[in-house]
Amino acid sequence: VNDFNIEGRYPDFKYVFYKKATKEFAEKYLTRMKEFYECTRRLI
User: Fold this and answer.
1) Would you list the domain boundaries of the chain?
2) Long-range Cβ pairs for the range 33-40 (8 Å, 24+)
3) 33: Cα separation from own chain's centroid
4) What is the DSSP string of the chain?
5) Residues 15-25: pLDDT tens digits?
6) Predicted model pTM
7) Quick check: 6 and 17 in contact, CB under 8 A?
């Protein structure tokens, strides 16, 4: 289970993730996802 797989039945973990999910956190993961997408797209 990673930070993105938290279900509503874990309110404590959900709150911790909410506090961690800053703009910088989101931008970091968005950049990584875009890089992964571009790399994968080039392989097709």
Assistant:
1) 3-43
2) none
3) 9
4) --GGG--TT-HHHHHHHHHH--HHHHHHHHHHHHHHHHHHHHH-
5) 788 888 899 99
6) 0.59
7) yes
